[in-house]
Structures are given as structure tokens and as C-alpha cells.
Amino acid sequence: MYSRADLHCHTTASDGVLSPGQLLARAREQGVDLLAVTDHDTVAGVRHLQSLNEDPGLTLVAGTELSCLWGNLEIHVVGLGFQLSEPGVDECLMRQHQARWQRCERIADKVAKRLPGITADQILTGAMTLARDAQLATGTDFVPGPDTLQIGRPHFADWLVQEGLVPHREAAFKKYLGNKHMGNAKSHWPHITTVVGWIRSWGGVPVLAHPGKYKLSGMKLQALVEDFARAGGLAIEVVGCLQPWGERDKLAQLCGKYHLAASLGSDFHGPWSDRIELGRLGPIPECCQPVWELFDDRVLPVAS
Questions:
Q1: pLDDT tens digit string along 44-85?
Q2: In the predicted model, is pLDDT for residue 190 greater than 90?
Q3: CA–CA separation, 31 vs 62, rounded Å?
Q4: N or C: which end of the chain has fewer CB within 10 A?
């Protein structure tokens, strides 16, 4: 049905570098015909795009990427195909926003303890400023309110680079912000069962995002997928960018084993690498049911 779909990407509504309008234009340039903008814990960018998509050849579906916990591991679940007006969407996302803010305070505290003479308030203020500057740098077509500003570890990393404490983002994560340094900074997220339940209550499709990025053993990955399916999950992100050989086939097998559909997404955050581009993805394996078959008529209207 769709020849070039991308159901996982980000804008300046969260930690992407393109505004929603710029991302939509880039998707058109890349020939994308099915697009879901899945900013972290917000639908502000998607709502903005409702009035911008005038291309009948590009179908938009609502999406968001929600952080949650499976045991002590932070997992991401993408919600797709829900109606933005569905009761409960804004309430649940506000809870996520509050949890994200508590997490940011914890991150700032942890980093400050390793930087003598620098306070957590300085670090948090710096990350906030960079997050806001990133939004404003793309122009005025999309400027969300201060209560929807999304701050993530990339913004803390950029502040560390700006202050000359590390040479680049990768070094910031390795030295200060990687999972091994965060400890209980992730403890504010809800359980995966809760997040899957939210998405299902909105009429959406819960998708387990980028399973290969969690670096789990085969047995643990299977346990995660089993728990996800038992909680009401409906699909796995089977196809992504920069996947190691064989990963796609293993994920396709898990789809079959647990009767889950298959999704695909670039996890595009910005035009930094030719290897990660909107819509530049392999096909969903023929043995899998494409996730868009679960959407029914839950697509966003073309602007009139």
C-alpha cells in the first residue's frame, strides 16, 4: 500500500533539529508517502502539522514516543494511529512531561557532582537554554509554549560541549550521560504496562521501538517482547537504520511468535548522516503484517 513509509522521527518539538514544517518538507523531498512524527512525550509537532500537509500523496498519522521501564531498563514505546482529540492523550502526556522534568533535575544533580564548582541549576538552565535556542533557530513557524519544552540528554551533552568540558556529544555520553552513569535518574518513568495501556485507551497502536538498541541477549529480548505483547502491545519496530546483519530476520520471527505486526522507522533526528534519512529503509519482511493495516481510518486529514 505504501512504497516509502517512515513511522519514527523527531522534530524540534522534542530533540530533533528540524521544525515540524521543515521535517514535512524533507519527507516530501525524500518521497515518503506515509509519515508519523513521534516526538518524545508530546504531540505538539503533530498538531502543528495538521494544518501544513497539503500533499494528498503524503499520509500523516499521529504519533509519539513514550519512555517507560521494563524492570530497571528504560524502554521506548511508540504510539501510532490515535486521534489527537482522544480523551486522555493530553493528560497522559502531561504526566510524562512531569516525569521528564524530574528526570532532568536528577541528571543535572548527577552531572554536577562530577564537576566541582558547577551547580545543578547552572547545568539545567544551560540545557533548557540550548533546547529553546534549537527550536528558535529553525524559524518562527513552530514555537511551542514553555510548558511543552522537551529537554533530553542531547541538550545536556550540547551544554557540556559548549562549556568546553568535552569535545563532542559522543564524549559527553561516554563520560557523563550514558546509561551506566544515570542510575536511578530513569526511575520516574511509568512501567511499560502502563504506557501500553495508555496508547490502547487512545485507540492507538503500541509499537516496541528499536529493540536492537537495548543490547539485550536473545533470551532477554524474547522476554521483553513477550511481556510487551502480554501488556497489549501490537507491533515491533522491525526495520530501522544501521541495523546489524540478521537483526531484521530475528525481529520478524518474534513478530510471528507473538502475533505482532511490524513497523519501520529511521529514528531521524537531523540531517547529520547520509546513513540515517527519512524513508531510507528496507522493506518490511513479507512474513510480517505491516503495522499500517492496524490503522483503519486513523490518519490525519490533508489540510484544506
A1: 999 989 877 677 789 999 999 999 999 989 999 999 999 999
A2: yes
A3: 19
A4: C
pLDDT tens digit string along 96-105? 989 988 989 9
Q: Cα-Cα-Cα-Cα dihedral of 91, 267, 236, 209, to 10°? A: -50
Task: List the chain domain ranges.
Answer: 5-94+191-294, 107-186
8 A C-beta contact, residue 283 and residue 247: no
Cα separation of 185 and 150, whole Å? Answer: 16
Output the pTM of the full model. 0.89
CATH architecture of the domain formed by 5-94+191-294 = Alpha-Beta Barrel (3.20)
